[in-house]
Amino acid sequence: MTPDGRRVLIILPAWNEADGLSAVLGEIKQQLPYVETLVVDDGSADRTAEVAAAAGSAVARLPFNLGVGGAMRLGYRYAREHGYDVAVQVDADGQHDPAYVPALLAHLGEADLVIGARFDGEGEYRARGPRRWAMALLSVILSRLTHTRLTDTTSGFRACNRPLIEFFARWYPVEYLGDTVESLVGAARCGFAVRQVPVAMRARTTGRPSASTVKAMIYLVRAGLVLLLAVIRRMPGELKELAPGSPSYAAYLEEQLARRQLATEG
Amino acid sequence: MQLSTLTSITGIVVLAYILELLRRQQLREKYAAIWLCIGVVVAPLGFFPSLLDSTARSVGVASGVSLVLFAGFVLVLLVSLHLSWEASRLEAKTRTLAEDVALIRSRLAELPDGAEGGEAR
């Protein structure tokens, strides 16, 4: 539990991450003793689930590989079933520094979804060529859609509150870039507020980023397609009943107000 | 051999095969409806290929062969579209099932000294 009484779950989607996982989990436990973790083993062939369980984390093991989007919806369903107030998504490969999690949590009061973003002052990572154009295109369009400045829309480092946990537990796209871009567009289109917090990302402890120009071109085209689909797809009507402006969201706000008062009095 | 012999045999074989698949419960009823309709259309055309030309003329197509090509193409397009749609639905359902399995497994692992719990602990 956080000092102000929120129960926080860190969801780590992991696919064949047995090598670096225990270090990542150890760091989280050391820096954030008040959070609980869930490793979603996305059909790994290695000992990911065993490593996670040995490090003291809860584990949900998918019978086959679904991709990050599939793993994340499972994570949000777990968070909903276990009644968490906040869910934070962190990559299992160690590129996200858990030291930034408190900053994400601090901004959840003013937004439903807080994204830890590169290119916003912190850190030194720079992309070039088609990959940069793709990122720029995504940033411009998504900033418009969300009415806030977004510099790193494909960041998998993000925190969300309870109404959005409920939302993502029901709807989380499983397709390419669905876990980052499309889920963001879907939440924004239903009226959830999005903010970004500048973070520095580290080199991955395992795996390596794809850097070839051809791959970057393909990325640009696919990102454009994903964006187009995300904007024209109709959102299921029942999801809007969870969004800001609905009775269930108003009830959530009241509850939060009461909790904050309790925290300040105590 | 006359052309109508070849086409009528083909028509009968196609219809019989569809019926046999249905009878052995290898085809779900929702797919069977489409294929039965196709069979019912194809079989008489096999016996009376001349029907084709008069049908073609009545819908404004000059030759029966063109009509068959056109109709066949549209049909195959629709059927494959239908199958893509079914496959998407099935994938969505499999995904939900996989998530359910994972949730249940994690619940089992949380049970104290559960029979399954030992594995993931």
Commentary on this structure:
- The complex is a heterodimer of chains A (266) and B (121).
- Chain A is an alpha/beta fold.
- Chain A has a single domain (8-265), classed as Alpha-Beta Complex (Spore Coat Polysaccharide Biosynthesis Protein SpsA, Chain A), CATH 3.90.550.10.
- Chain A has nine helices and seven strands; from the N terminus they run E-H-E-H-E-H-E-H-E-H-E-H-H-E-H-H.
- Chain A has helices spanning 18-31, 48-54, 68-81, 101-106, 129-146, 162-170, 178-189, 213-232, 247-265; strands at 8-14, 36-41, 58-61, 86-89, 113-117, 158-160, 194-198.
- A seven-stranded mixed β-sheet of chain A has the order 3-2-1-4-6-5-7, with helices on both faces.
- In chain A, strand 1 (8-14), helix 1 and strand 2 form a beta-alpha-beta unit.
- In chain A, helix 5 (129-146) runs parallel beside helix 7 (178-189).
- The mean pLDDT of chain A is 88.
- Chain B is an all-alpha fold and 121 residues long.
- Chain B has two domains: 1-48; 63-121.
- Helices cover 83% and strands 0% of the residues of chain B.
- Chain B has five helices and no strands.
- The longest helix of chain B is centred in the last third of the chain and has 47 residues, at 64-110.
- Classes of the chains: A alpha/beta (266), B mainly alpha (121).
- The A-B interface holds A 38, 40, 49-50, 53, 58-64, 66, 70, 73-74, 77-78, 81, 174 and B 95, 98-99, 101-103, 105-106, 109-110, 120-121.
